[in-house]
Design brief:
This protein is of the alpha/beta class. It has 12 helices and 11 strands. Helix content is 42%, strand content 16%. The strands form 4 sheets. The chain has a 5-stranded parallel β-sheet with strand order 4-5-8-3-9. Strands 1-2 form a two-stranded antiparallel sheet. Strand 1 and strand 2 form a beta hairpin.
Amino acid sequence: QLITLNAQVAEQGDRKFVLGPSKAMREIVDLAQKVARLPATVLIQGESGTGKELAARALHDNSNRSDRPFVTVNSGSLPPDLLESHLFGHVKGAFTGAIAPKKGLFEIADKGTIFFDEIGSVPIETQAKLLRVLEDHTLTRLGGDRPIRLRVRVVEATNRDLEQEVEAGRFRQDLYYRLNVHTIQLPSLRDHLSDLPLLVEHLLGDIAARFGARPKTASPEAVAQLQAYDWSKNNVRELRNCLERMMIASDDVVLGPGDVPKEIRERAIRDPSPEATVAASTLRVLRAK
């Protein structure tokens, strides 16, 4: 069976952070369930598409803060001055255009969780202010002088090597040590391809539900073709996009190997193995029970 930690994705409706039954995934779940109960800062590392935001939401939803806000910060999408206004808020007259006081994302997330998506892209000039908030649990709005007490949990994600960023002078060492209290390393999909048959089944069901479409399944041969690819471009997100294309393009209830996109078949890291076909066949047997 799949291992799940409840999570929600506001833009795409109810979802689950889904993990397969492999040893690597079970270790991730065990660690995540322990860390979820703690108020400590968590750093989630992993390649693009491995589900870092879903993991962060799962941590929040499995904590005692689950009824409080979960706020996402898109760290690299804003220039430093605008990012600081978004994070810390501002008082009236703090800068041109500040016609009214405004809460920042930290205040909005108070008593809940604030999630920094790609913490490594936070500008170096903002990192000192972020460190101060993490250490003092207080912030001061831009242009203000009144400290505001916070009780917010910080979860951050990155696909960068922060130690290398520190060595290159792009990331503060003291902030790195403050963020790296508990680390969850999400493996790439190619490192747990044995989970792919169950992931395919779950994702196909999820896609059908989101589109209001007829449910479909994948044949063992199609699953074996998918297991022969390494998914290094975008991991589970790439797999999901591939399955969505297959569902839309095919009128059949059972997706076959011919429905697997040509570029996936041509870039396979190996020929579909007998073991992969057996694993997919086992899924069919389990589904029939």
